[in-house]
Amino acid sequence: MSRREILEAWRSHLAEGRRRSPHTVRAYVATADRLLEEVGAVDWRTLARLDAAALRNQLARRRADGIGNVSAARELSALKGFISFARAQAGEADTAPPRMRGPRIKKGLPRPVTPDDAVNLAVAVEEDASVEWIGARDRAVLLLLYGAGLRIAEALSLTGGDFPLSEVMVVTGKGGKQRAVPLLPIVREGVADYVAKCPWPPMRGEPLFRGARGGALSQGMIQKAMARARISLGLPPSATPHALRHSFATHLLGAGADLRSLQELLGHASLGSTQIYTKVDAATLLDVYRNAHPREQ
Predict the structure, then answer these.
(1) Catalytic residue check, 204
(2) Is 34 one of the catalytic residues?
(3) Active site includes 245?
(4) pTM (2 d.p.)
């Protein structure tokens, strides 16, 4: 049996048997592909014999690539599922995967969430949804919060007339203040994926993000979806939709964005609001000061 045939069987099981999202299918197949490359197995019986030590070694190699705890936990889940599937294909009576405890996820109060956690949250809300288009919808909303720094109310106020999204979107925020927000390709593609799957086509004057019955999507539904994803990923209660906007600001400032530009992106009326909101660590602020102050040149 070829490696391609094994991966195709696994992909079909995930997509058709388990009805997993396309994003999950791609990730889980990639995980299986890495394992096959490492162990050189091309038959189900060899894969079925892999034990916890083999999984532990594979996870260690992925750790060396720089993945964090949450990503490692997801990787282990994919590996266990693949081995369980292999054991079923090999005709074994016991298809349970090797027993192995996942990485410990720190139960602190991180603010903001890490970039990996932000991406994992967007994927998790999609996987958790019972209907494919609703999963795509929830993922698209979270991408707008983290990828563009929108308030949840601003994301849900978009209408069909705003689609398709361009590279720069004009957002109307608090007090009717408008601002231009650049949109990353992954954000635009996420929204386009949702629109393609949504039962209701985008119409000018109608909400872009729809509830299950076609009405305007409420903030509460996104908050509940993210709460479920947060729990499944072991993240603290502080990982809310608003925390994604907070993370957008903090990560940009930490990467060197200046406060004035960030103020415009967030739509804050005053610079003081931006400074309080981002709460960048003192070391980063000190670096910015030293690089910008005339006496430090």
Answers:
(1) no
(2) no
(3) yes
(4) 0.56
* ∠ Cα 99 105 111 (to 5°): 160
Domain spanning 115-278 has what CATH number?
Answer: 1.10.443.10
Task: Collect all residues with Cβ–Cβ distance below 8 Å to 111 and sequence separation of at least 6.
Answer: 238, 243, 246, 279
Q: In the chain, how long is the greatest CA-to-CA distance?
A: 74
User: Which amino acid makes up residue 22?
Assistant: P
Q: What is the CATH number assigned to the segment(s) 3-89?
A: 1.10.150
110 pLDDT band, cuts 50/70/90, is very low
Residue 174 a catalytic site member: yes
Q: Tokens representing 267?
A: 């739509």
The catalytic position among 174, 260, 279, 290 is 174
Q: Would you say 89 and 41 are in contact if contact means Cβ atoms under 8 Å apart?
A: no
**How sure is the predictor about 175, in pLDDT bands with cuts at 50, 70 and 90?**
low
- Hey, what are 154's tokens? 């601003």
Catalytic residue among 20, 74, 151, 230: 151
Q: Where are the alpha helices (DSSP H) in 40-175?
A: 44-48, 52-64, 69-89, 115-128, 132-148, 152-156
Residue 7's pLDDT band, with cuts at 50, 70 and 90, is very high
137 is catalytic: no
Cα–Cα distances in angstroms (integers) from residue 143 to residues 58, 136, 249, 275, in the given order:
30, 11, 14, 23
**For residues 269-296, average pLDDT:** 54
**For the chain, where do the domains classified as CATH 1.10.150 start and end?**
3-89
- Give catalytic status of residue 151 as yes or no: yes
Phi, psi at 180, each rounded to 5°: -95, 130
Where do you find CATH 1.10.443.10 in the chain? 115-278
